[in-house]
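Q: I have 185 residues here and want to know how they pack in 3D. Can you give me a structure?
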Amino acid sequence: MVANGGLNSRIEKMRNYNALSGFIDDELPLFSGKLDFLTAQLSPGNRERTFGRVIRIRELPSFDLNPPGRSFDMESFLEVRAGKESIAFRAWLRNIHNATDDEIREQVASVRTKLAPFVHGPVGKAVRIAISTVSGLVPVYGLPVGLILSVIDSYLLERVFPVSGPTAFLSRQYPSLFEKGAAHS
C-alpha cells in the first residue's frame, strides 16, 4: 500500500510538471490506468478535435471540404507547417483544448484579431507611414502631431492589434493552402 502511495505521488508530480519519471518492471501492473493523462496528451485525436473547433469558429475552410480532383501541393504544406507561426499555433492548440468556444472565439475570431494582420501587413504599414509623414508636414503643429502619431503607431497598435503566431497562422498561412495556384494546382 505504501508503494502504491509513492507511485501515486510520482504520477501526480509527472502530471503537474509535464515530466516523466522512471519506474521498475515490478511497478508496471500498478500503472494500469494511472497514466491516462499521458495517453491523452500524446494522442492526436484531442488536438484534431480542437483544431476542428478552431477552424469552425474562425470559419475557415477545412481539408475535408477540398473538392475531389484537385491536387495537393505538399511542398507548400510542408513550408507552412515549418513556419514559426505554425509552430506557435500548434503550441497554442495544445493548451486551448479545455477552453470554451467563446474563449476560443475571443482569441481567434474577434474583429481585433482579424484586423491585426492587415494593420501590420504591407498595406497597413504604408497607410500608417503616409499618415505620419503627411501630419509631419502640417505647419507649426506638424512635429508634435507626427511625434504623437509615431508613438501611437509603435506602442498602441502593438497593444490593440497584436499579431500572435496563432493569429498569423490562421489569417495568412492556413488560408494560403486553399488559394488557387498557391497550394493547389
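Q: Anything worth noting?
A: Residues 142-160 form the longest helix (19 residues). The chain has eleven helices and no strands.
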